[in-house]
Amino acid sequence: MKTKDVRPAKTRVVVSVGESVRIVRELQELTQSELARRTKIPQSTISAIENGTINLGVERAKTLARALRCHPAVLVFPGWEVTKRSAA
Hints:
Oligomer: single chain
Helix content: 40-55%
CATH superfamily: lambda repressor-like DNA-binding domains
Largest sheet: none
Order of helices and strands: HHHHH
Shape: elongated
CATH architecture: Orthogonal Bundle
Distance between the termini: 20 Å
Mean pLDDT: 88
């Protein structure tokens, strides 16, 4: 398949930062309590992040990303749309 034959996927659903945390957590079949134990972030804080009542923040994003085995950008920028081809 050639690069010119590939079309980027269209965004179907707008996802918030909290929803992205919940989705990644649930895909890994973790409860909020299990994630809290792995990260030392209180379960109530994880719940508040997922519900959008508090901001994720850079340090918490890094901590959660390590525990969820994903890049922090997956959590922080769930709706990011790349318009230019990257050099990476």
